[in-house]
Amino acid sequence: MIRRGRSRIICLIAVFVVFFVPGLALAWAPQPMQIRPGFMAGSGDAPTDVYLDLLIPLAGDKNSIFFFNPNVRFDDNDGDEQNIGFGYRQLTANGQLILGANAYFDTMLSEADYRYRQWGVGAELLSQWVDLRFNYYDVFGDDTHLLPGSVGEEGYYFSGNSLLLAMPGQLVEQALDGYDAEISFLVPFISEVMETRLAAAYFAYDAEYADDPDGWRGRLDLRPVRALNLTAEYSDDDLRGGETFVGGYLELPFSLENLFAGKNPFAGIGQAFAFGTGTRQLAERLTDKVIRDRHIVAVTSGSTGEIVPVVDDAMIFVNQDNEDSGEGTYENPYASLDSVPGDARYLDGSWIYIFSSDDVADTYADAHLTLLDDMVLWGQGYEHPVYGLGGGVMPILDGGYSGGDFENYADESVIILADNNEVMGLTIQNGVEGIYGSIILGTNIHDNLIRWNPSPEQPVDASGIHISNLFAADDINGMTLDFLISDNRIIDNGSVGIYLVNEVDGAVTDVTLNNTLSGNTLYGNFNSSSDNNANANVYVSNYVHGGDVTNLMINNTFSGNTISQCGEESCSNSVDFGIKLYNRITPRYYDPGLNETVSDGSINNAQFNNLFEHNTITGLEADDIYYSGTAVYMIQMMDAETIDGAFSNNTFSENTFSNNDGAGIVSDQNSIRAASTSTVTDSHQIWNIDDNSIQNNGMVGFYANNDYFSGDEDSFTDCSTEFYFRNNRVTGNGSLNIGSTGDSRTDGIYLYTDTSRDRISRIFFMEGNLVAGNAGDGVDYYWNGSDPASIQVDFGGGSLGSLGGNAFYDNGTSLASLYDIEQDDSYFTTSALYNWWGQASGFVDGQVHYPALIDASSPLTSDPFQ
Fold it and tell me: Which member of 149, 151, 279, 300 has the lowest number of beta carbons within 10 Å of its beta carbon?
């Protein structure tokens, strides 16, 4: 019975050949189609197969051909294969070489009844005497299958002090990537009667579960007549050993033009069966059969059992349910966490696994664990996505702090980090700091519950996670440092939820710093910090000073975090920011106390790359602290003697910042500065604000203060400050009216550039935004300057390509001095076509400042957001 998948593929090839290809061939093809039925018979266990190969010219002339090459094959082991390929061959101008290339899609049903697919590409060089060929094969999709009847089960498990992978008695079939390369020679003398060629090929394939089947292949091709090719082949490789094949194929020219003209499509075939015609002319070989491996290579291996160590004799197990003190093995774990540091395996790179024998989360009292470099601390609460182990209750590490004096934070913290630890699956509570790290080169903290560090009843300047690094530049130059904090619940801590500070002193070269905070939930953190800079649920500071900076990249990613004042159990006090981010690079430092510059330095290629995406920050309260209650507050500064290449790239995408007493987004003191007589070149501040909801915040929706400073207009070369707002909803902000009436901190969007340097390109782009119902101005932009060529403002129909589609209305209705659009400068014009202004007639008096400078023609006649 023919399999359904095989039938479909054959039908598709047939439809293409019958209905589509003949039309192309008639229109363009100079050569007849070649029909090649054939077979290859293998010795021993090697398969015997039959096939039909078609080479259908689609375009070309007498010296070139572009062809379509479908092929179907069936073997005596219930396997089949189909190939669809296209190729091109070109006879060189001197008639001495044919250059060719081809590409194929192959699909094969193996004898084990699994379907594999691969792409293949090939190149060929043909001549009268020597041919060269190369083919590459790339399997895609499912390439590995356990065969039915395999003995045992594959899986990860704990044993002794190890994490092991069991592969007992498995038979695995795998389709392999690989390549082959072939050289063939025309055999003299005999080829004067019948064309005869000898070929030798090397092939190599990449097997994961067996020896790579690398080997060689030899082939003899004889053409007693031009329409018949006889083949004998021997191959040998490291896996399958030696195999012999004999077979051949007919090569029948078939004229589609004659067929459709009602003539004999096999006209002239008698010449192809004439004996003794010798070697063909090189041009006749433009339609030769493409030589490539006729099978997707699939091998079966792994019949013997195997135990693969993943963590080999480097795990320490802890389970409080053990009635004995234990030995640290999985079968006899330590009952107390205190026993772990004394274990002989407590070394750099070892793993600690804490688990329970029942569904009750065990509490480890007075827990204080100092990790070593590269250690993994794994609580049962995290199910590992690769190993499938863990999952269930989260062991509780309780630091036992209940107030009072302490000598240092580290001693009273629950977990003390070293370089590049991974901490997961635990409840970490009642430390002064929950997790503490100092001068560490990286960490990965994920899937934990971090709470009560310390409890809100005992507030001190501490954090759920506290990492404070002060690096000497020479210790990290040339390195990439990764700090990953993800998928944790960080709640009800006495001070900051996440505190991450990286400070570097000295000349920095080739350093990448990655801070990634994703998927965390933070609320109820009391924020009692005496440092007003750090009074936030999340505080991240990167500070580089004291020397030249060359090739420094600071990447801050905040993705999918949820931050609020109140959560399921509690609320924090009112001193609350969502995320505070400070980025500072200051090789040049002026000491106001000494009234002099105490260090000079240059910046050569430094980058701040800040990404905020899919975060939700809501319900933060405010007090009298500057901009408190704000979802995201940023300060960024680069200050050097000279600057060549300084970049501040800021992306906000699909965030929700709403119902906070403070602002939605504030970037204050965002500056790139050089000494008054020095230069700033190739420096850019770029903001992409897309698809965000910034609504109903008590202060401004979005505020940015971009500040360039230098004493000479000619100091700036190739510098810009750029804002791109797309598809945001900025509504209902400024209602608390903190500050004086009409203060800019009540606007929907407020952009301020404190520079008059017209050598700096200034760009403001808006498309598809809703800006409505804000207490202050809807959009207020104050950019000093005098040259209109230095600034482009495009809200629709302007030089930046905005399609408009914005809606500006009902902003600043409480005061006549407030507008939907407040352009604070009169030296440039704003293009604002194709927007909605609350009425079909366009804007009316009082909606825009400098109406003569704002082109709002062709307004929309309906609200695009209704």
Answer: 149
Q: Residues 629-648: what's their mean pLDDT?
A: 93
377 beta partners: 352, 423
Which residues contact residue 187 at a Cβ distance below 8 angstroms, ignoring those fewer than 6 apart? Answer: 196, 197, 198
Task: Answer whether the bond into residue 788 is a cis peptide, omega within 30°.
Answer: no
Q: How much is the pLDDT for 717?
A: 87
Q: Which of 425, 446, 540, 428 is nearest to 488 (CA)?
A: 446
76, 44 contact by CB (below 8 A): no
Q: How is residue 741 written in tokens?
A: 């009436």
* Torsional class of 801: left (φ above 0), alpha (ψ -120 to 50), beta (otherwise): left
pLDDT at 18 over 60: no
Distance of alpha carbon 136 from alpha carbon 806, whole angstroms? 52
Amino acid at 474: D
Residue 677's identity, in one-letter code, is T
Percent of the chain topping pLDDT 90: 67
Query: Domain 4-254+292-299 is of which CATH architecture?
Result: Beta Barrel (2.40)
One-letter amino acid of 112: A
pLDDT at residue 456 is higher than 60: no
Residue 166: pLDDT band (50, 70, 90) is confident
**Rounded distance, CA 248 to CA 264, Å?**
26
| Rounded Cα–Cα distance for residues 74 and 111 (Å) | 11
Cβ neighbours of 388 (radius 10 Å): 11
pLDDT at 4: 40
Scored b (16 or more CB within 10 A) or e, 570-584 reads: ebbbbbbbbbbbbbb
End-to-end C-alpha distance for the chain, whole angstroms: 60
The β-bridge partners of 496 are 463
Looking up tokens 């049903």 gives: 109
590, two tokens: 């002026």
Token pair 């935004």 is at which residue? 769
List the structure tokens of 666. 């504030």
CB 128 within 8 A of CB 108: no
Residue 545 · residue 582 · CB < 8 Å = no
Residue type, 739: G
Judge whether residue 11 has pLDDT over 70: no
Rounded to 5°, angle at Cα 274 from 273 and 279:
100
| Bridge partners (DSSP) listed for residue 296 | none
Q: Name the phi and psi angles at 695, rounded to 5.
A: -140, 140
pLDDT in tens, 389-418: 999 999 999 999 877 666 677 778 999 999
Torsions phi, psi for 715 (to 5 deg)? -70, -20
Domain ranges, ordered by start, for the chain: 4-254+292-299, 666-866
d(CA 301, CA 410): 53
Q: SS3 for 235-266, per residue?
A: EEECCCEEEEEEEEEECEEECHHHHHCCCCCC
Q: What is the CA radius of gyration of the chain?
A: 37
Q: Do residues 740 and 728 lie in contact, with contact meaning Cβ atoms separated by under 8 Å?
A: no
Residue 65 has pLDDT above 60, yes or no: yes
Q: What is the pLDDT of residues 599-608, one digit of tens each?
A: 678 999 999 9
For residues 866 and 864, give the distance between their C-alpha atoms in angstroms, rounded to a whole number.
6
pTM metric for this prediction: 0.70
Tokens coding 172: 């695995």
- Of 114, 123, 96, 106, nearest to 72 by C-alpha is 106
Helix (H) or strand (E) holding 456: none
pLDDT, mean over the chain: 88
pLDDT digits (tens, 9 = 90+) for 98-123: 999 999 999 999 878 889 999 999 99
